[in-house]
Amino acid sequence: MFGTRSCPLEELLVALADALWKGKRQTELETLVIEQVALRSGGDYWTVFMALDSCFEAIAADGQQRLWRSQAINERYSYLQ
Hints:
- By secondary structure, the chain is an all-alpha fold.
- It contains four helices and no strands.
């Protein structure tokens, strides 16, 4: 999806944040972000990978709970819409 066109790092980060917040890991997108961060920081790909992968996992781990909580709140206050 993202590999077919050139995207600014900011757009990649927004897409990645959205996916991770929902509990989804997207390897292709994560790889693009890691490559861009490594390129811009002058760091080694694997060093950046090690630093970011654990962050990605921690964020995604609670995604399903966040979605359930959001759904419950929306159902509870649906009469306001």
